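ok so for the tutorial part 2 we go from a plain amino acid sequence to predicted structure tokens. step 1 is just haveing the sequence, like this:
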Amino acid sequence: MDPAPGSTGSLPGGGTWGVGFRAGVEVVSALVVGVAVGWFLDRWLGTWPWLFLLFFVFGSVAGVLNVYRLFKPRSVGK
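step 2 — the prediction. this is what the tokens look like for a chain of 78 residues:
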């Protein structure tokens, strides 16, 4: 997502509320996907709660990394 010519902001469009909402959605959706995958695999393989916990951690890490990438300063030259 390249910034529009002449814009000075480094965050994606949508203002403060938009960026905050997007960060929240990134974390929650990554957690939901991780929990769903872990729950499904545990039910299928009968390993409750180990894969559920593992994928909960993976989802948490993925959500935090997504928010980090959202707020990471972008270099202008690329």
